[in-house]
């Protein structure tokens, strides 16, 4: 087996959970980052679903490409399948990504894209509906608001501005300082 590349666009960017030899800013074409997945496990429950990011059809997405040494590839794939395929709302695919490290190298990376036919596919929700889900949900990995805040901070540190995530972060931070 050769080295494995993994494309992270959400929590994998700031909490990959696997060993890697290299991490480079990268862009994937053909899908975009969206809060389009109802979370029934990690950031919500079936009764009170949260929302997490998915790669949805169209556009492009800036993220991080992680190079995993060949000796760690099989265990990394096992880990990612356990983490990302809990409810099978994502499809494991290989996609070309362009590294944005100045080299313009193209690599093929493992990525997890949303399955639009899955019951957990939320599609495009109105911002207020997104906020309601994020504000009040919690799952095995913690509060949905913490996921959104951490992801937004990490994206901004990487120079990626997502208007919806930025608005959500402002609203959630106001919640923290406003009396109930």
Helix content: 25-40%
SSE run: EHEEHEEHEEHH
Strand content: 35-45%
Q: What is the count of helical runs?
A: 5
Low-confidence stretches: none
At CATH level 2, the architecture is: Roll
Output the CATH topology: Hypothetical upf0131 protein ytfp
* Average pLDDT metric: 94
CATH homologous superfamily heading: Gamma-glutamyl cyclotransferase-like
Helix and strand composition category:
alpha+beta
What is the CATH class designation? Alpha Beta
Q: How many structural domains?
A: 1
DSSP E strands, number: 7
Instruction: Please list the strands of the largest sheet in the order they lie side by side.
Output: 1-3-2-4-5
The span between the termini is: 55 Å
Output the radius of gyration: 16 Å
| Shape field | globular
How would a textbook summarize the main sheet? 5 strands, mixed, barrel
What's the SSE blueprint?
Layout: E1 4-8, H1 11-14, E2 22-39, E3 50-68, H2 70-84, E4 90-99, E5 106-114, H3 127-136, E6 138-139, E7 142-143, H4 144-157, H5 163-177
Parallel strand pairs: 1-5
Antiparallel strand pairs: 1-3, 2-3, 2-4, 4-5, 6-7
Helix pairs in contact: 3-5, 4-5
Brief summary of the model shown:
The protein has 180 residues and is α+β, with helices and mostly antiparallel strands. It has helices spanning 11-14, 70-84, 127-136, 144-157, 163-177; strands spanning 4-8, 22-39, 50-68, 90-99, 106-114, 138-139, 142-143.
């Amino acid at each position: 087996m050769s080295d494995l590349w993994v494309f992270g666009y959400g929590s994998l960017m700031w909490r990959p959970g696997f060993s890697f030899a290299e991490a480079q800013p990268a862009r994937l074409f053909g899908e975009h980052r969206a809060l389009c997945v109802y979370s029934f496990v990690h950031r919500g429950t079936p009764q009170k679903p949260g929302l997490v990011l998915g790669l949805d059809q169209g556009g492009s997405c800036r993220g991080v490409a992680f190079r995993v040494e060949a000796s760690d590839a099989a265990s990394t794939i096992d880990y990612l399948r356990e983490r990302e395929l809990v409810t099978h709302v994502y499809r494991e695919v290989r996609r070309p990504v362009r590294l944005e490290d100045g080299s313009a190298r193209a690599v093929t990376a493992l990525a997890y894209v949303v399955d639009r036919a899955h019951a957990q596919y939320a599609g495009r929700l109105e911002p207020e509906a997104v906020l309601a889900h994020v504000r009040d949900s919690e799952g095995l990995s913690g509060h949905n608001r913490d996921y959104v805040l951490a992801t937004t901070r990490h994206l901004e540190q990487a120079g990626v501005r997502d208007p919806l995530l930025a608005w959500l972060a402002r609203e959630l931070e106001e919640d923290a300082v406003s009396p109930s």
